[in-house]
Amino acid sequence: MIIDHPLLGPRDAAEFTYMGDAKLIDRPDWQSDTAAQDFYEYGYLRDNPAGWHEELWFHEAGDRSWLVVTRNTVTHEISKVELARDVARAKGRSK
Amino acid sequence: MHDLQPLTALGGTTAQIDSFAHITIAENDGLALASVAARLGHEAACHKTLKKLLGAVPAPGKAVLHDPEAGFWMGPDQWMIGAPRETHELLADTLDALFGKTASVTEQTGAWVCFDVTGLAMPDLCERVCALPIRKMAAGDAQRTMIHQLGCFVIRRESADHIRILGPRASAGSLHHTLITAAHAVA
To answer: What mean pLDDT, rounded, does chain A reach?
Structure first.
């Protein structure tokens, strides 16, 4: 599997480490009334789709950046690769 | 009065040089290093200072081979700056004053071991130890990769048969071992 790194170009997947569902970017608000339930779901509950899935990959043997990779779990086709920080900032995180 | 003797990364009093028929592996003990990471919201100012220092901001996967300070890209908004240790021993302090609040500067001299690999068989050696497309790399290409399970930077220098490898200093012996083993295989 080849991951097309947005800055460095196509790199072998062996250089990367899978770090889980990209929903981990959406950390719940700790001050919310439902924080306990939200964090339980954030910590433990994941979808397991057969199909397109947004995932976090860490370029461990490369530039150490975190990526959001949109990958088809059935065919391993990758449709989109973005820097996780750009995704997070677009969602108003990193402030 | 203490009588302290500085040691190189491999433990000698002088840098170790291993010569083979078509390859030379030379420990480079004369390098001062410091990393620069742009702070959030100060990226433009940090780029400006980098440009003043090196002549250009190193692009992703690239180095700027400038004298006396040179630099390469490590990751998004992160660079490593290197200079001769003789003249720039306090590189991190100098850079800290230069960048001020626009970047975080960390002393890196004591964290890395540096090997200069030169000779006709350099591409063969490089192909045996890491996954970089060495024959496609041009002068000034700088990539991080795995050598012997160690995260290392490989910088293609001006001369076509010269790469500089920066690896973790604490594993200098292991990195040296794998380079020597590969050199025996290709020499």
So the answer is: 93
